[in-house]
Amino acid sequence: KGLEDIGIWNTESGGTSHYTYFGHHASGITVTRQVAMWESLDCIDDKDVYFVYQIQTPETDDNNVESWFGLLHGQTVENAYGARLGYLMLANYIAQTENAVHVDNIKEDDIYVYRHQKPDGSYVAVAYSDETMKTVTLDLGATEAIQADVYGNETSIASKDGKYTFTLGDEPIYINWKGDKFERCTDGNIKSEVSYEVTEQNVAEYVF
Question: Which of 50, 58, 119, 187: disulfide with 67, CB 3.0–4.6 Å?
Answer without folding.
Answer: 58
